[in-house]
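LAB NOTEBOOK - FOLDING QUEUE
OPERATOR: T.R.
BATCH SIZE: 2
PURPOSE: Compare the predicted structure-token outputs for two unrelated chains run back to back under identical settings.
PRIORITY: normal
REVIEWER: second-year student, initials M.K.

ITEM 1
FIELD SEQUENCE / FIELD STRUCTURE:
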Amino acid sequence: MLREELPKIITDTLPGPKASEIIERRKKATPSAIRCVYPCVIKRGEGAMIEDVDGNYFLDWVGGVGVLNMGYSKPEVVEAVTEQAQRFFHSMFNITTHEGYVALAEKMNEIAPVKGEVKKTFFTNSGAEADENAVKIAKAFTKRPNIIVFTGAFHGRTALTMAMTSKKSYAVGMGPFPDGVYRAPYPYLYRKPEGMTEEEAINFYLKKLNDVFEEASPAEYVAAIVLEPLQGEGGFIPAPIEWVKAVRKICDEKGIMLVVDEVQSGFCRTGKMFASCYWAEAGCAPDILATAKSIAAGVPLSAIVAREEIMESVPGGVIGGTFGGNALACASALKVIDIMEKEDFAGKAMTIGNKLRDRFNGLKEELPVIGDIRGLGAMIGIEFVKDPVTKEPNTELVTKLVQYCANHGLLIENAGTYLNVVRFLAPLVITDEQLEAGMKILEDGIRELS
């Protein structure tokens, strides 16, 4: 079966002849702004493996950029979606109630680590929609206009979420952006100010956050502080828990909603169902959670969860939409969560992450281009530098490494402000043999290119 295979390239060149033809058709039919640097055209996928149209096998460590924690074509999920499709595809929740939406909302209320005993959930289609709706809810509850976001953040490509996103290469020529979005430095401890201890750096970043209230928006006008518990596009940077505790305290003191963007980090990727479960265990749970990507194994769906008093502050008609909570997506998500809980996907993530850390931490002394290895669970980032002392980003190496790995049957993706981080987002159903094969391809690439 494909799900048990290892990387194997059988064509003389990549892309192969059939893939080349389709890629040429792509160039003529679709915008070049939607880039793709990978030399393969998928025919089918199972587990963590892709077979392309030319018969090459690729091990996928990108997983649709965090969408496929459950892997490709999980039979039980396929069965659940098929069963739903045989009854009906869609029924707008504003018009007719369907039980799948209600059951999934009940399940999300049970597992989401937000503050409050009684919670409510509603569904949209994408991560950007979830983030934007989380902000709308925070504004409705607080009656305040502004939000604070962070350097390195990625929240989406709608008008508001482009403003929230730090890297403006995602928003070239798209201004002016919505007002009321202010930015503070995110605690990037690998690149903290020189000479500071971690404790001193955390205090430094907290001061910078408090400076926003003095220099940009008074606290009484801030509806929400929005952050990723582990930055995705920003370079797989975990928020230090002591910093999160302090941010939670600031929010409590100033009446600000703490909104967690778990679009990429949710659904067992970090060794918990949500990365903010770590926050809840430390006594600093968020007020509002936005999540998407792996929620439904590839069927478009996103969710927003908050305690009842926050949700019920929203005026009628302000939230909702035609496709939010689509019946096929809800059926998929219910089965995904059931499997993840029964088969301990959070434990799988911890095992995978520990193997990755052990392997590449062991190479740091030998290969000084490896600057930092960080993350939570199986959400691991490896940052590459030209010099371990100056920490000058090694973007060129990572660019070449992406192509090297693809040519050897492994799909990896870059991240980070300087695009010098390799991020690990492989499906959590990856086999031990596939994980070893992928690590060897990556290690061989690092050795050869550095």
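ITEM 2
FIELD SEQUENCE / FIELD STRUCTURE:
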Amino acid sequence: MLTLKDPSLLKNQLFINGEWVDGDSGEKITITNPADGSEICQVSSAGKNETRYAITCAKNAMQNWQSLTAKARSVILKRWYALINENLDDLANILTAEQGKPLEEAKGEILYGASYIEWFAEEAKRIYGDVIPSNNPSQRLITIKQAVGVVAAITPWNFPNAMITRKVAPALAAGCAVIVKPAEATPLSALALAVLAERAGVPKGILSIVVGVSSKEIGEELTTNNIVKKLSFTGSTNVGKLLIKQCADTVKKTSMELGGNAPFIVFEDADIEQAVQGAIASKFRNAGQTCVCANRFLVHRSIYQEFAEQFVAQTKKLVIGNGADKDVSIGPLINTTAVKNIDEMVNEATTKGAKILIGGTDKNLGECFFPPTILINVTTDMRVFKEEIFGPVAPIIAFDTEEQALELANSTEAGLASYLYTQNYSRIWRFSEGLENGIVGINEGIISTEVAPFGGIKESGNGREGSKYGIEDYIEIKYMCMGGIES
């Protein structure tokens, strides 16, 4: 039983046009706790019609929202930010219950997500245009920036709070209305955010939450409806490619934060203790279920054994269990399908010669748990090298030269994040510039912050979230040429 200080934050209906409503079909989604399989609640399921209605309401509401001053929108966003902080404990409990991550980690996500609202509340007042020097004395050239229009946001289950605020905050700041389609496994965090947004004064229709078992049906309406002018998606590369294709017919603006395959490169001159701490933080956060977590550990052969030994020693200190329990550092994976996929990847690696130093399948933990696992003797033909693992498995590969390390690091179609450990500043610049990634962590395992741009290149997507650049995806530039000016 989920006990909250404010039980009204736990919602089981759709939020459309400022109203809490049931889906037309009467169908329900059962939300369960991945740690023990217990049912939390049942949530109404939306389809095409409810999604279309939410889009129409967003269009009707957006004109008044856009006409507000930037400062007025900023004030409402700051109220929303304050309410999230005031309800931190309840929001974290909801997140842990539906997603599984440890409670302290859930609190960290809530605060991280809220930071985007605070940031873009300020950026709303800094959407500047320009006066361009004219080549004609009778003309004046001006640009202004305006909201792109109605925005659709499709968000994943691994960060059910922060992935929403990263998209909604800049959209609202720019003057857009947003329809959010959260992952069906973790909709409760999205609905709780809507409760607080409504309390903060976000007008009816400006933020709607549509939850549904038919992701395809909802997604097709969001991508094909002419009213929607922008789609923001965080999720798998394959789904992202499909959504881009579906958006093409209506030429929507898109931003895609897709899969990763992050290399974690440790050179011979690195501070090994620092590198191991970074590896623990990057690899095992959210049980390895993050798109930017270290996926392939490339370690110079001269320190390979020492790094592996220290990595194992620190991994042994991690506590696995129900995220709601005290001192737990790693919770369950999202479902049994995820566990099965990780197990198959590890088995394939060991069949081809990899050795497990710690971890591997442990049926005693529970059906959604997979223990932190470290593999050595990994080769490039193994799935754990070629594919995004999305679980607590760390494959270690040895390299001999800087050139070899760079080739291994870039040998993937993914280009989201990478991590580099060295004390050589020439190498830091040279290697970072050579890495084919949108984000590089240098002697640092945690790189996400609202003040810096988050996003990838290659097949990891396009666009940036956070920072001064993050609002650009939600605005259009309009050029105005004023003629007939007498000198």
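REVIEWER COMMENT (ITEM 2): The chain has two domains: 7-259+461-479, 262-411+417-449.
FOLLOW-UP: none requested
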